[in-house]
Design goal:
single chain; alpha/beta; six-stranded mixed sheet; 11 helices; 14 strands; about 20% strand; globular
Length: about 280
């Protein structure tokens, strides 16, 4: 395990399972302190997450010192100071509509991420007490930032000419799980499936987190030799950790990810993120 910490100029970090507390909403004081100390040393701290930009933790959302975001698994790279979208790859509007037709109107709690926003079926939002709403969605929906779609999702995205970044379906009823998973696997433009049969997350084949980050690195005149990456998911974080000069997995992360990481830090709910940064950078 040899790397020169003086060469680390950028740290990418995941949220869920990495830097957030168990509530999936807030970053602990110790983790935030570690991030701020890195920034004081001139290290650029970049959230690199499967989350849509509209559901970033409040501490990151309100702090413009976190200038660059890689959101929705690499679909978009955002410069928050200028508003420029440095990189964008999504489903087409037609693909988006086709995917919506697989489950719309079937009483499934879902989010569609697109254009940095999250879209929900209005009829589902009217009866949230009947659905398995994730803990961090409670905070988000109470904030009122979501877009309520009346009528069919497929019609909406076609009419608005909007291509989705990703889809999340939660608590899919058992009798629908196999059908929806099978239909998704038939589609040549759906590459990434994650989670159990009841919770399904999928992205476009156009999505490439490595290309997204390399676009940012080129803008900043940096290379992978200047990157430290911290995550927990084999599906979402392995490529980042493999490419970075120094890759860290949290102890609660996937076992396969731990095998390829340069270091395994403590659990995310035990400030493992801060521990790694303090040990190797600060």
């Amino acid at each position: 395990m040899k790397f020169d910490k003086k060469q680390i100029k950028l740290i990418t970090f995941d949220f869920d399972g990495t830097s957030l507390q168990r509530d999936q909403t807030w970053i602990s004081f110790r983790n935030m302190h570690a991030l701020k100390q890195c920034q004081k040393r001139g290290i650029i701290c970049v959230p690199c997450t499967g989350r849509n930009a509209n559901m970033f933790p409040p501490q990151i959302d309100r702090d413009l010192s976190f200038r660059y975001w890689v959101s929705s698994g690499g679909c978009r790279v955002i410069d928050r100071l200028t508003g420029e979208i440095l990189y964008k790859q999504t489903f087409t509007p037609e693909e988006t509509a086709q995917l919506c037709k697989l489950y719309e109107g079937r009483h499934i709690y879902s989010e569609v991420a697109a254009e940095g926003r999250l879209y929900f079926e209005q009829e589902v939002l009217e009866e949230l007490h009947k659905y398995p709403v994730p803990p961090h969605h409670v905070w988000y929906l109470e904030s009122g930032k979501q877009i309520n779609v009346h009528g069919k999702l497929s019609d909406f995205f076609l009419e608005q000419n909007i291509g989705a970044e990703k889809f999340n379906l939660y608590g899919v009823p058992e009798h629908m799980q196999q059908e929806i998973n099978d239909e998704l696997r038939k589609l040549p433009f759906v590459e990434f499936l994650d989670g159990s049969k009841k919770d399904i997350q999928f992205f476009s084949t156009h999505t490439n987190r490595i290309k997204a980050v390399e676009t940012l690195l080129a803008k900043l005149n940096l290379t992978w030799d200047n990157v430290m990456s911290i995550g927990d998911s084999m599906g979402m974080d392995s490529a980042m950790i493999s490419h970075a000069a120094f890759g860290v997995a949290t102890d609660n992360g996937d076992e396969e990810l731990k095998k390829i990481a340069d270091f395994v830090t403590d659990r995310s709910d035990c400030d493992g993120f801060a521990l790694a940064v303090e040990k190797f950078i600060l």
